[in-house]
Design a protein that fits this description.
Layout (H helix, E strand, L loop, with lengths): L10 E5 L28 H11 L6 E5 L9 H9 L6 E6 L4 H11 L3 E5 L5 H8 L7 H10 L5 E7 L8 H10 L2 E7 L17 H8 L6 E2 L11 E4 L6 E5 L12 E4 L4 E3 L7 E3 H6 L5 H9 L24
Parallel strand pairs: 1-2, 1-10, 2-3, 3-4, 4-5, 5-6, 6-9
Antiparallel strand pairs: 7-8, 8-9, 10-11, 11-12
Bound molecules: S-adenosylmethionine (SAM) and iron/sulfur cluster.
């Protein structure tokens, strides 16, 4: 499947809930958001049916996200249903990791291939300060649980915020020396209705990399972590893992974009920051075929987003579109 600009679209990010057990400062207001009513949220069978209809058009890779996907009950059931669809080669999960120690074995048994864990601090008191919930999260414990269950590669996403966690850049990078983990530093996107974090909190990638180099030289790495995503990777010579940077604010990847998104209430969004979407849920519930809607959505996928112009299409928080 190609869109109107010849980009091959084979990657679907599926949000299974708009709710979360965290309230990360950069993502969700403390009081939460107006949650979707339950009847509007796709059932697992409905998500599976959408993927079953889209796989023959060239869909190959899936990522389960949210909100926080692991707070939706029986997530392993969805993974095993998706795993059984012919053509689906890779299933990944994006999670804050709180429930990984408990869920990793079942998720792995259901067929989960890989995981991205979001973690913005290695210090317990600071995790609570950033996530604004005390759920006893420990990154190393979560990543080891995934690793022990055989899920991999393990990627760790760190949103860098000046004055909040930028003094931990070297500590995160150091984890990659001994562990086969891929730590990716993400530029903060001061989008939506978040008022607490602004452009002043954005730490440019060059500065992130210079703080990594305090530990020693790094060399560009084009190994398996690279994939088709937007991260650029480096490695300390001889290290087990890699250090990556993702720069949504200072660079755009739109010309290489290979993905579309399915919101928890069944809207297909063709751009993270654009307004453009096609409602699949009603067609599905009316028994109509979805392929024509998918084709239409791709024909209308925008060339690029307008994040740099701060036009973000009514987006209130990344949790509403799956990040
Ligand atoms: N709850 C899961 C998690 O935290 O990984 C999945 C959903 S979360 C919306 C997906 C990703 O978006 C996370 O890695 C999070 O750090 C990132 N994110 C959310 N808001 C962001 C922002 N304003 N700037 C940069 N990254 C953001
Ligand atoms: Fe929840 Fe993920 Fe948003 Fe944090 S980034 S509030 S964990 S959805």
């Amino acid at each position: 499947m190609q869109d109107q600009f010849g980009r091959r679209i084979e990657y679907l990010r599926i949000s299974v809930t708009d709710r979360c057990n965290f309230r990360c400062q950069y993502c969700m207001p403390l009081e939460g958001l107006p949650w979707l009513p339950k009847q509007e949220i796709l059932r697992y069978e409905e998500i599976t049916e959408i993927v079953r209809q889209l796989a023959p058009l060239g869909l190959r890779r899936l990522r389960i996200t949210g909100g926080e996907p692991t707070i939706r009950p029986q997530l392993a059931t969805l993974i095993s249903q998706l795993r059984a669809i012919p053509g689906i080669e890779d299933i990944a999960l994006s999670t804050n990791g709180v429930k990984l120690p408990e869920l990793a074995p079942a998720l792995a048994a259901a067929g989960l291939d890989r995981v991205n864990i979001s973690a913005d601090s290695l210090r317990p008191e600071r995790v609570v300060q950033i996530a604004r919930r005390n759920l006893d999260f420990d990154l190393v414990r979560a990543a080891r649980a995934a690793q022990d269950a055989g899920i991999g590669p393990i990627k760790i996403n760190v949103v860098v915020m000046r004055g909040i966690n930028d003094d931990e850049i070297a500590d995160f990078a150091a984890l990659t020396r001994e562990n086969p983990w891929h730590v990716r530093f993400i530029e903060l996107m001061p989008v939506g209705e978040l008022r607490e974090l602004t452009w002043e909190h954005v730490v440019p990638t060059d500065e992130v990399l210079s703080r990594v180099r305090v530990l020693g030289d790094i060399v560009p790495d084009d190994g398996p972590a690279r994939g088709n995503g937007p991260a650029v990777y480096y490695r300390f010579p001889g290290a087990a893992g890699t250090v990556g940077v993702i720069t949504p604010m200072t660079h755009t990847y739109c010309e290489r974009c290979n993905r579309v998104r399915l919101t928890a209430d069944g809207r297909l969004r063709t751009c993270l920051f654009g307004d453009h979407e096609v409602l699949l849920r009603d067609a599905l519930r009316n028994g109509e075929p979805l392929a024509p809607l998918f084709v239409q959505a791709l024909a209308e996928k925008p060339k690029e987003h307008e994040l740099l112009q701060m036009r973000v299409g009514g987006l209130r928080a990344l949790s509403q579109v799956g990040g």
